[in-house]
Amino acid sequence: MNDRPSGRQAVSLAGPPPAPSGRKRRSDGERRHRTILEAATSLATERGLEGLTISELAAATGLTKPGLHAHFGSKDQLQLAVIEEAAGIAYAQVTGPALALPEPIDRLRALCEKFLVYAQHTFPGGCFFAAAAAEFDTRPGPVRDRIAMYQAQWMTVLTDVIAEAYQVGQLNPLGKEAAQLAFELNSFLDLANAAYTLHRDPEQFRHARQAVSWLLEQHTPRR
Question: Domains in the chain, ordered, with CATH?
Fold first, then answer.
């Protein structure tokens, strides 16, 4: 099976999206393809990747069902293309801008803050990858593997930035491995996303920001 249905290489959350590879689509076809993927990515956070239907996409994009079928050879290819679209959005809104900052402690704070903004405002169903992971965590196959890859990349990004902050003395490890602190910070982010998605209460993000600030304060070296 072709595991790059969108015609792009897999995006890395730790680096810039690669340039498109292979045969270029005509501009009209590319714009139509992007329209489909944007609509599908948004719908997937509410309906689930399995819940995506050609009928719903046709209604959301104004395209015909035969036109939609022509873009994707199978449901797996559609789902994988949607995951790549979501990864590009996450890079553009969260990891890309955060990792561009010069200091590791600033990068870490920005990763947390930008994730919370993304979770509240980007998709109607909250964080795309949290929703997709809950849907596919027990389903073996290429879709689950791609979701797991991006979840692992996110944790690697957090862990690496924390390790660098330890190394330059911007955070005190307090006997805690970088991966452990990354796990604790991500737990606050995940809980805020899940609670907001269920209750639509923006206070969840305020609680998460306070928790992140408190935890980082505990690891800030005392001068």
Answer: 27-218 (1.10.357.10)
